[in-house]
Amino acid sequence: MLNDEQEISKLVANWMAATKSGDTETVLGLMTDDVIFLIAGRPPMIGKSAFAEAANAQANHGPVQFEGTSEIEEIKVFGEWAFMRTRLSVTITSAGGAEPMIHAGQTLSILKKENGRWLLARDANLLAPVTKSGK
Length: 135
Prior knowledge:
The structure is a single chain. The chain is an alpha+beta fold. The chain has a single domain, classed as Nuclear Transport Factor 2, Chain: A (Roll), CATH 3.10.450. The protein contains 3 helices and 7 strands, in the order H-H-E-E-H-E-E-E-E-E. It has helices spanning 4-21, 24-28, 48-60; strands at residues 31-39, 45-46, 64-78, 81-94, 101-114, 117-125, 128-129. Strands 1, 2, 3, 4, 5, 6 and 7 form a 7-stranded mixed beta sheet that branches. Strand 5 (101-114) and strand 6 (117-125) form a beta hairpin. The longest helix has 18 residues, at 4-21. The protein starts with a helix and ends in a 6-residue tail after the last strand.
């Protein structure tokens, strides 16, 4: 049986793999219904349904290829709640030969254990565009 930190690490790996393959349903299954995403320069995205709407809107603009890495830097568990700090890098390539968009930075996530499974409940995403010079 996996310990809490291993289960949370598995959630991150599953999230990254599902996102890469375009499996939105699996990603939705990894978050609480009342999830909140905080993204710099945008209003909060509140609820699983808002995430699904954003994913569908992105898909309506044509196929997107996603590559990413998530390096867990810290996990702390407090009973049925946990927080995780990661270094995330994502490259998004749209159809039609557009220049890939690369974003990187830190995230701070709060997870909640529901029915024996860890799920993402809150996420603060501090990703910023990476310039061609790498800065």
